[in-house]
Amino acid sequence: MRCWLLVAVLACCACDHGLEVGPQGQSGIAGRLRFTGQWPAEAEEVAVAVYENTPREVAELYQLSGWDTGVEVGAQTYDYFVPIERDGTYRWVIVAWRSKGSFWDFRSLLGCYHAAGDTLPTPVTVVLGQATGGVDIAVDFGVLSGEEVPGYNLCVGALPGELVGSAGGG
Fold first, then answer.
1. Alpha-carbon distance 82 to 49, whole Å?
2. Distance (Å, whole) CA 27 – CA 84
3. Under DSSP, is residue 153 helix (H, G, I), strand (E, B) or coil?
4. What is the set of domains in the chain, with CATH numbers?
5. pLDDT tens-digit map of 20-58
6. What span, in angstroms and rounded, lies between the C-alpha atoms of 116 and 108?
7. Which H/E stretch holds residue 26?
8. Residue 122 and residue 113: Cα distance in Å, rounded?
9. What is the pTM of this model?
10. The dihedral of CA 125, 131, 134, 136: what is its sign?
11. Cβ atoms 112, 119 nearer than 8 A
12. Helix (H, G, I), strand (E, B) or coil at 40
């Protein structure tokens, strides 16, 4: 009887207790990416990037607060976690891609986090020692072929026009 009790306790301890938002006690932003459309054959890497503020100049595109580059190319969904090192409100959480042999630039943008009804990207607040979950982002690869993708213009529209023009994005 004690043997069965021990087996039951060990089995319960080994059970999956559901999706955790992020590593226990680590600050960050977590969510699920959902991909729609055909992955480009030349895709080498997809990342989630977090910015404290929406970039106002080209140089600020490289001032990330955190990132997750673990997205498997070809995935339909991906549960991400971006570690963040300090409290704050982060105003631009984006998904970007790069092709083989290229570097990240403005044309890398695939989408951003925005709650339904918002007219700008939705800010995300992070408290040290906690993970903020539910920051889900829909990515439609149709944007790469010029299709009108809901939400994409909202992501680009948060950027100053001179930044979009100088970066070759519009």
1. 8
2. 5
3. helix
4. 2-166 (2.60.40.1120)
5. 455 667 899 999 999 999 999 999 999 999 999 999 988
6. 23
7. none
8. 6
9. 0.81
10. positive
11. no
12. coil
